[in-house]
Amino acid sequence: MRDQAVSFRFTRYDLTRVNFTPARGGHPVRRTLTLISCCLLAVLSSNGFSRTALAEEQPLAALIAADDARVAAMKAADKPQLEKLLSDDLHYAHSNALVDTKSSLIAALVSGKTKYVGFDYENRDFKLAATNIALMTGRTRIKVETANGPVQTALSFLAVWRLENGSWKFLAWQSCRVPEPAAPAKPVSLLPSNWNPKAEADKVMAGLVNVSASEVKGAHDADFVIIGNTVFIVAISNDVQPGENPEWTECYAVMSIVDVPTGKLLQTTPFARSGQRFDNETLLEGACFVPRIIPLNDSTLRCYFASEAPGKRQSTVYYRDFDVSSKEFAPVIQKAVLKTAQGTFEMQPKPFYDDAVLHGLKKPEKDYGIYPFSIKQFPDGCYVLVNNYPIGQNALARLNDDQTTFEVLGQIVQPNEMKLTEAAVNRMPDGSWLAVLRQEGGTKNYAFSTSRNGQNWSTAAYRDAIPNGTSSKPTLDRFGDAYYLGWQCADEINRVSRSTFNIDVSRDGVNWERKYRFETEKSFQYPTFKEYNGTIYLTCTQGDFSPSRKERIMFGVLEPAPK
């Protein structure tokens, strides 16, 4: 069953305040909703429902499983499963006001008169109304083949599940069609008519400088902060071989300090290594991986990193603070905190995984790979895309005000058939969220997921905006009034992996046009883009000879500030 993460709210109903007046000859949808209300009221009354009678344990997993099985059975016209899952009292009101009973619905499906070929939730919420009654609301997109031809539409729905003899049964359904939005006017181009994406990208690459230390053999996945005329860049490095791997204990987290006007490398400081001793703790043996950096203020930077040893222990996310004036790191490290609906934990893979399972994740657990991957600052706070790479798990989180706790807001878990490993997120003009997700296996192309509130996410799906992407980190930034979508193209220059990278721009996040086309045998991969005083800067990974081309970190200017 492919649907977005499901939310479950513990809701108490005060039946003494229900006002009910049946409609006489009213609209069929209103009559059906009235009938559902009557059924629900009768069931609650017959069970002696009161505000204190709600179960303490919310049966979220059982309800999700039951509804997933129901949709699968409807699509497959599986009569035994439908007989098992549908209540004998089923009242199924379609969006065209036709009403089916259990027997008539099963007959229509089994005969092929009605065939569901698509049933994809945009969101699906459950509310427990009594110990044996759950309300299900949300929106879905359906594709149905009928005797009158195919139907494809978006629906808003209300449904009721009832616990019968220990099993959840589908009791009632009412849906209405959601009007399709009007086609937008053709957007005005953001680029001059004579713009050449490749030529402009070539100019950018000509200005890049190497910011890795001379002893570094492998480097990857950089992040940075600029203060004044100085850029502070953190990255994974090792002094043994090109590339990086969470099983390589030689991988360490390092900061490069660079003078922005000249591009001169001023200092490199490794700040987390396998087995390193600090005043308050000694790191366990293992790689120090995927560092990220944020400014706490103009004088202090916070650097996060993961300490991990796959198959040996739970990886842990730490942070270490850096003093800008003295250019020294604090002598101590601290553990980052992960907050989920289940509680507060050390930031490790297990509690992150357990939370996702409750929201429909069906992938094997791993003991490593959790990272604060993409960090964005908005007027209402700092938001972070937290991922677990080996599982293929992503979630939007909020970083609390003291920058220690990552509170998970919404898991992006669907579809389970895709392994979506890394993501970039941003807010759209209407306040909704858009995520672009890297895919391993399958087509390797990127998928997109959306959310109105950051909590409930749509089933990830392909979009025409990226026709031929391949497995690598995406970017999604907003500079001025334009969004910048960065994605690794599957095209290769002389069979070099990750040798082409596109940056497309858009005002609305829907209509995109090509602004940069990077093509180089040195590769152009894992870029990070940030704006400072009107100039857009970047870091990326490049190399000369290794298959991975993960040999050094480069820094430069994507776009100078407007004059």
TrEMBL record:
UniProt-listed InterPro entries: DUF4440, NTF2-like_dom_sf, Sialidase_sf
Residue ranges of every copy of the DUF4440 domain listed in the record: 64-169
SUPFAM superfamilies recorded: NTF2-like (SSF54427), Sialidases (SSF50939)
The protein, known as: DUF4440 domain-containing protein
Organism of derivation: Planctomicrobium piriforme
